[in-house]
Task: structure prediction
Amino acid sequence: MKEIALIALFSAVLFVQQLALSMIPNFSFTTLLLIIYTKLLGFRKTSLIVTVHVLVYNILSPFGPVIPLHIPSMFLAWMLVPILLSTIFKSWEHVHQLAIFGFFFGFLYGWIFIPVSVFVLGTPFLTYFFMDLPFEFVMAVTNFLGVLWLYEPIMKILKGQLRKFRQATQ
Result:
């Protein structure tokens, strides 16, 4: 039961920060938080948080859902953080490595949406690619700086709070 509460709490934080920062295109701390959640909680719990986040964001967002056809792309893109950090980049623990991961993920996130936009919605590839590139760059830089500056302090706080939470609920 305590783990469900933890997943709900972390999902809520993810949703609220993305909603609060949604006025700035592709600027949020979602990638940073998913990196932290993956390193702190592991693949399984972070996957549940991603699932809850994508569903709740698309149901409750006051700006309306993204194009429904993009929901699977959004889910896949956010799932890549726990997947990659639990497999290929599992040994990446240093803040600079994780900041580089966040930078390149900013582009990868945008590219995940290309197949649906091009093949299903009929958007010309080069038009989509070049129009989305500035937004991908903003997300990449935001991810890089967010991880570089905030990963260690947030991780330190959450580790301490998580330790207290687990002790109090035993």
